[in-house]
Amino acid sequence: MRACGEIARRVGALDLTRSRREEASVIFRRVHGDDLLRDRTVESIAASSVYAACRCSGERLTIESVAAASPCSEPKVVHACGVLNTELGLDAKLRRPQTFVSNCASACGDVSETVLHRAIELAGIAEQTGVTNGRHPAGVAAACLYLAAVNAKRPSRRKPSPSVRM
């Protein structure tokens, strides 16, 4: 099956585990079994299957990085992911703001450990109180990092580059 080769190439390019490859293959088989391949490329469904396998297992991987490792365009991969989520009802883990704080801090450069820990704590509090609902977790993480730096009287001198993927 051509799809298995496509999935293996995506998993290899993204340096993912064999179990992710197996999970992506199971998802692809469900797509094929439910006849959802019609009018969609095997490459886009294979790439979105890899992304879905990572999301369902809680592994952090951006859809942009999956699309970059795929021969098809990012909009096609995004569309295929939407189809998988809608049609298969996948149990994708929510992305939590706490997991984005360290990436955001790295993009800023000069963040102390105290500020970093406080930002993670603030992200947890924001999540518990429901402030994060409907907001992108990377944006919440950036806001928590900024608030922690201001509270520590050490705001970061650098702003994260808009080109940095979280």
Computed over alpha carbons, the radius of gyration is 18 Å
Averaging pLDDT over every residue, what do you get?
A: 84
Largest sheet: none
Uncertain residue segments: none
Q: How many strands in all? A: 0
User: Strand share of the residues?
Assistant: under 5%
Oligomer: single chain
CATH class of the largest domain: Mainly Alpha
Q: H/E order of the elements?
A: HHHHHHHH
Describe the structure.
There is one protein chain. The protein is mostly helical. It has 2 domains: 2-88, Cyclin-like (Cyclin A, domain 1, Orthogonal Bundle); 98-151. It is 65% helix and 0% strand. Helix 1 (2-13) packs antiparallel against helix 2, helix 1 (2-13) packs across helix 3 (42-57) and helix 6 (98-108) crosses helix 8. The chain starts with a helix and ends in a 15-residue tail after the last helix.
List keywords for this structure.
single chain, 166 residues, mainly alpha, Cyclin A, domain 1, 2 domains, 65% helix, 0% strand, elongated
Question: How does the SSE layout of this entry go?
Answer:
Blueprint: H1 2-13, H2 18-33, H3 42-57, H4 63-68, H5 74-88, H6 98-108, H7 113-129, H8 137-151
Helix pairs in contact: 1-2, 1-3, 2-3, 3-5, 6-7, 6-8, 7-8
Short description:
The protein is an all-alpha fold. The chain is 65% helix and 0% strand. The chain has eight helices and no strands.
